[in-house]
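Supplementary notes (optional reading)

For those who missed the lab, this is the record we used. Protein: NfeD family protein. Length: 90 residues.
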Amino acid sequence: MLWQEWWVWVVVGVTLAVAEVILPGFILLGFAIGAALVGLLLLIGVLGGNLFVLILIFAIASLVAWIALRRLVGIRKGQVKIWDRDINEN
């Protein structure tokens, strides 16, 4: 099947990374890293073609990547948003 091919996962990863550039926020980048990791593991022969295992590895890798990105580039400790005007005021 198509999900067993390593290049499909890499293409999905690259597509998500490009979408992250268009829609910033470090949300899609975690999924891109997860997809690229699954593609790499399929390429070197560590993973088989079981869809459940591929999706599980993708989900775990994406979650770990998202948490790592959140810690690296997320809101810094002590950073406060100061509002200088209220949208309800005229």
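If you only remember one thing from this example: The chain has one domain: 2-73.
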